[in-house]
Amino acid sequence: MSPLPPGAYRPSTDRWGTFARLAKGLPEGSIAVVDRTVAKLHPTLLPTLASRNPRAIIQLTGGESAKTFTALEKVLASSLALPRSGTLLAVGGGTIGDVSTVAAHVLKRGVRLVQVPTTLLAAVDSSVGGKGAVDMTVRGRVVKNPAGVFHYADVGWVCPEFFDTLSDAQRREGALEAWKMVVSLDAPLFRRYVRKPPAMEKLVKDARAIKERVCAEDPYEQAGLRRVLNFGHTFGHVLESVSHFKLAHGDGVGLGMLLALDVGRHLGVTPEPVAAEVEAALAQGPGVLGRERAAALLRRAPMKDIRALLTADKKAGAKGELRMVLLTGIGTTEVRDVTEPEWRALWPAWTKGVRP
């Protein structure tokens, strides 16, 4: 049997340890894409990489500015000497991982990728599952992830030392994304989390295992099984965009989950007790931001911009309906096409910061 081509689906392989120890296994002549802020916070990072004689170390500023065609071209231009058998190492949060995944996919028609998530959000979510994307601008608003690829990492390095420098807000973001998976996919684990919130290492391991199970069944999103991972993302991405990305992704997903609970209740898909229990758990556990934050953002966004963002969303249906993941119970979901009149009925409450 021929070996798997670079980027093809393979079960997630995680290696835990210090970056210095894991970097000893990095092939010489690799390319490293590094978040500039992470390099400043961890002064031994760049010397450790330099000791492996890389072809290039490319520093980018993390955030949505890293997910542009300009940043992608910078990575590719610095990586032209990398052979197809070479390795591209991504060291940073989700945005660095995203652009690196796209670069690994198109560079020489596919090179080996190693993901090193340095944020809790990237560790629990984006560094697993093979997806990478860049953003585009539609009517002056940035649309998240319309141009992307599937390119699975050969291995993920999980280095807890990087999490030591995270802010409380960054920890909250990662926890919200992890709870998203638990709420929508694992009822027994949700009950345990409600009784006793997990330590960070357990949160990361649980979330990565849950996502891997989903991706193993639908590695390229052809069967629709991975749609469940989009719970909270439809309106979460809208909130991020209208905030000009001052609202971080994890917080956007947290607020997006609250709005998805509202849509589910409105359509009779999500039982009222389930919606109430989940909203309380998200507030008490990871600490979802209050509804007033979503209201402030939605109030200042013209409706034509909201429509444009929702229409451009890659999860929109052929006729413009929103293909949303809604809870039917703790750990169970249903994908429902939501029309504009259905979600617009909730708009008055959303812009007042109250539950409809």
Automatic annotation (TrEMBL):
Residue ranges of the 3-dehydroquinate synthase N-terminal domain?
58-170
Q: Which UniProt keywords apply?
A: Cobalt, Lyase, Metal-binding, NAD
Q: Tell me a Gene Ontology molecular-function term this record carries.
A: 3-dehydroquinate synthase activity
Q: Which residues form a coiled coil?
A: none
* Residues covered by the 3-dehydroquinate synthase C-terminal domain: 177-285
Top-rank taxon, per record: Bacteria
What SUPFAM superfamilies would the database entry show? Dehydroquinate synthase-like (SSF56796)
Name the coenzymes or cofactors required: Co(2+); NAD(+)
Q: Name one GO biological process term.
A: aromatic amino acid family biosynthetic process
Concerning CDD domains, the annotation shows: DHQS (cd08195)
Which spans are transmembrane here? none
Q: What is this protein called?
A: 3-dehydroquinate synthase
Q: Which organism is it from?
A: Pseudomyxococcus hansupus
